[in-house]
Amino acid sequence: MAITRKDIEHIAHLARLEVSDAEVPAYADKLDKIIGFIDTLEQAETAGLQPMAHPLQMSQRLREDAVTATDQRDHYQQNAAETTDGLYIVPRVVE
What we know:
Elements: H1 5-14, H2 24-42, H3 73-76, E1 83-84, E2 87-88
Antiparallel strand pairs: 1-2
Helix pairs in contact: 1-2
């Protein structure tokens, strides 16, 4: 697939980029190479392969799921205009 000047201008417009006439051939060449690489990847045989999260057989180190912050709701709500049962009371804005 050949990238045309019109394609470059359209992409630049969508991306809100200013591309000069001198830059268009360079962008077209780079985009052609990217699309060519994608075409090469699409030819790879992937039938029967399991998806993987990481290319190496590794396990992720996880931290212990423990509460580390203290409950300071009452402290934070001291500055609120109105609260009830730990909830902020605000004026109705939609009738």
